[in-house]
Amino acid sequence: MPARTRVTLPKGMHASVSNLDGEAEAAIQRTKLEAPAEGEGPKPSKGRANGAEDVAGYKLPEMAVAAAAVAPDLSGLCDIGEASFGPAPAPAEATAEIVHGVDDRVRINSTGSYPWRVHASLLITARDGSRWIGTGWFIGPHTLMTAGHVVFIHSPAMPARHGWVRSIQVMPGRNGNQLPYGSVTSSNFRSVVGWTNNGNENYDYGAIILPTNLGNQTGWFGFGVFSDRDLLASVGNISGYPGDKPAGTQWYAARRIASVGPRKVYYDIDTAGGQSGSAVYRIMSGGRYGVAIHAYGGAVNNSGTRITLPVFNNMLNWKK
Amino acid sequence: MASPQASVYVISGVVRTARGRPVADARVYVTRSPVPLPDIAALTNEQGTFAFAVPAAGSYTLACSVEGQATLEVTVTVPTDKGRRVAVEFRLAD
Q: Could you tell me how many CB contacts below 8 A there are between chain A and chain B?
């Protein structure tokens, strides 16, 4: 068993918040790599040697292998995503697209099996009654990770909608009309101050706490904090529930991680509206480990909130 | 270093059949935008309506997917002023 070190709960922008009052937090002792669990049933595939899932008909697009260069010191520089924000409109040619070039996503039909059943189709009901679709993934028996904007809609222009969502119906391993693990509805959510108070995309992550331990059946992904070098040498995998495909179907794609910032990970993995909250994960020795939470579609690359140490610590606390 | 993505503009709309009836549970999402956007999709309500809050003026392409129908797309321009609200309509083929 690895040595356990005491972990300080994040404060400031990463201070964990809940829609439920009176939530108490305790100090936890964990390592930086949290292991996955495969749940019930037969042993799953360990994935391919190139870091992608072993999906029939899917071929990882050829990419030039990047030299194992050490990332430059980015301290003091703005996150690349922040260059797109601000009062000045972006140049006309820098439009954001979420499906880039040829769409190489493949449909997953074996969604009742691990690892696919870890991913859940989400039906979100916001404060104002509007409904949305997103994706979540199990990190423990009763906890799914997702984007912050899935559990807390930051929308000052629409005050009736702004705030914690009312409820989320969670459907693990959904395949169209088939719900191999049924569905469970939650109104118990987590996010962080940096998202709920500031709407800052660098803190766009959150969690759904279920009233049942459904994750013991589906299994869950591990997650970890990785160096820039490790991430840049990794293949990112994403599977989720996009709105541009038949309702409730799960679609998968993978690519080598394109670039990283202090709090974000960028990749040219095709996604579409509805995949917010998906795991961006790597396969290591047959285990699946989240490295980011998919959140945004961008001009060249899509992006997710990187699992840094404060994010990792919040995730550990939320899965208790 | 905080750079809040304040959503100050609204794109709203409706999805209707060819005969003008509202379509519920249509999936509406943004496929092109002047800035990165959350990768979430709206479901239309019983009146067939939806509304997105977006953080910047500029050109947006919205798509609408309904089972058994070809996906529709419409591109709109969100102005920097003048009420900051843009309305769109998707009209299905049948």
A: 163
Euclidean distance between CA atoms A245 and A272, whole angstroms: 9
Is A276 a catalytic site residue?
yes
Distances A143 to A190, A208, A213, A319 between C-alpha atoms, Å: 10, 6, 8, 5
Is a pLDDT exceeding 50 seen at residue A291? Answer: yes
Q: Taking a C-beta distance cutoff of 8 angstroms, is the pair B38, A155 a contact?
A: no
The whole-number average pLDDT for the span A80-105 is 54
Catalytic choice (A14, A149, A154, A294) = A149
For an interface test with A, which of B39, B43, B49 has the most A Cβ atoms less than 10 Å from its Cβ?
B39
User: Which residue of B lies nearest to A294 if distances are taken between CA atoms?
Assistant: B39
A window 200-239, beta carbon within 8 A of B: 200-202, 204
pLDDT digits (tens, 9 = 90+) for A43-68: 899 999 999 999 998 999 865 444 33
Annotated catalytic, A149?
yes
Q: How many CB atoms lie within 10 A of CB A44?
A: 19
For B84, which residue in chain A has the nearest alpha carbon? Answer: A157
pLDDT beyond 80 at A4: no
Give this complex's ipTM: 0.92
Can you read off the two tokens belonging to residue A294? 């998919």
Q: CA A208, CA A277: separation in Å to the nearest integer? A: 11
The confidence score (pLDDT) of residue B23 equals 97
Q: Please give the distance of CA B94 from its chain centroid, rounded to a whole number.
A: 21
Among A18, A186, A276, A303, the active-site one is A276
Chain A contact set for B71 (CB, 8 A): 244
- Per residue in B21-72, pLDDT (tens digit) is 999 999 999 999 999 999 999 999 999 999 999 989 999 999 999 999 999 9
User: What are A303's strand-pairing partners?
Assistant: A266, A296
The DSSP 8-state label assigned to residue A118 in this structure reads G
Choose among B8, B5, B76, B58: nearest CA to A303: B5
Give dist(CA A139, CA B60) in Å, integer.
35
pTM recorded for the entire structure? 0.86
CB-CB: which of A82, A149, A157 is closest to B40? Answer: A149
Residue A301: what pLDDT?
A: 86
Q: If you measure CA to CA, which chain B residue comes closest to A131?
A: B43
